[in-house]
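Customer escalation, tier 2.

The customer says the design service returned an amino acid string that "doesn't look like it belongs to this structure." They asked us to rerun it and document both sides in this ticket. The original structure tokens are below, unchanged.
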């Protein structure tokens, strides 16, 4: 242990610059954690997904779906069989999303990757097991369970739960911009419209 500390300890002439660099690194890391709301990603709150504006259509369409009453984003998009697998998947997925967003490399059309498809399919079946398979049929029809689960659910249920509208221009922004800035009309135009109304009323 002493050898390791001795190895890591910088020479006397480098100690001040090393401490300055270390302090700057820690400060920037803390700032990045706070600014990116990193802690919120440990929760199941769907609003976390709208931290990145590119996910606004997905969040908005989910809030207008019937699934909103029963399932959060994590219920569908994250493995539910054990806690370790859940958070390992979230970490891997989150790192990929954050990297793409920081490098301005996010795709114009967001599509799930193969791993995400498998997770969503498993979660669809987990919640809708009784609708997907029939207990009577499984006893006398060979490979009933397998044949009922080999197609992806969204081949038929294309608009569940996100609907057909996935455009940033057609859905309202739910990200970091304060609510007063989300109005369609700017203040100067609102004022002009109100003044015109008042003039018309006087006439």
């Amino acid at each position: 242990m002493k050898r390791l500390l001795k190895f890591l300890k910088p020479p006397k002439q480098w100690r001040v610059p090393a401490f300055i660099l270390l302090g700057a690194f820690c400060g920037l890391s803390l700032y990045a954690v706070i600014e990116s709301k990193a802690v919120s990603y440990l929760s199941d709150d769907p609003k976390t997904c709208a931290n990145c504006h590119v996910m606004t259509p997905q969040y908005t369409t989910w809030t207008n779906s019937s699934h909103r009453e029963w399932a959060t984003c994590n219920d569908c998009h994250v493995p539910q069989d054990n806690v370790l697998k859940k958070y390992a998947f979230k970490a891997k997925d989150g790192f990929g999303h954050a990297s793409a967003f920081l490098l301005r490399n996010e795709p114009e059309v967001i599509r799930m990757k193969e791993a995400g498809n498998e997770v969503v399919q498993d979660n669809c079946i987990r919640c809708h097991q009784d609708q997907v398979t029939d207990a009577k049929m499984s006893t006398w029809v060979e490979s009933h369970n397998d044949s009922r689960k080999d197609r992806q659910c969204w081949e038929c249920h294309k608009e569940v739960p996100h609907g057909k509208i996935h455009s940033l221009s057609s859905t309202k922004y739910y990200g970091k911009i304060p609510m007063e800035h989300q109005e369609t009309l700017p203040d100067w135009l609102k004022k002009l419209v109100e003044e015109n109304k008042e003039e018309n009323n006087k006439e």
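Tier 2 assessment: The sequence is consistent with the input. Residues 15-35 form the longest helix (21 residues). The chain has a mean pLDDT of 78. Sent an explanation to the customer and offered a walkthrough call.
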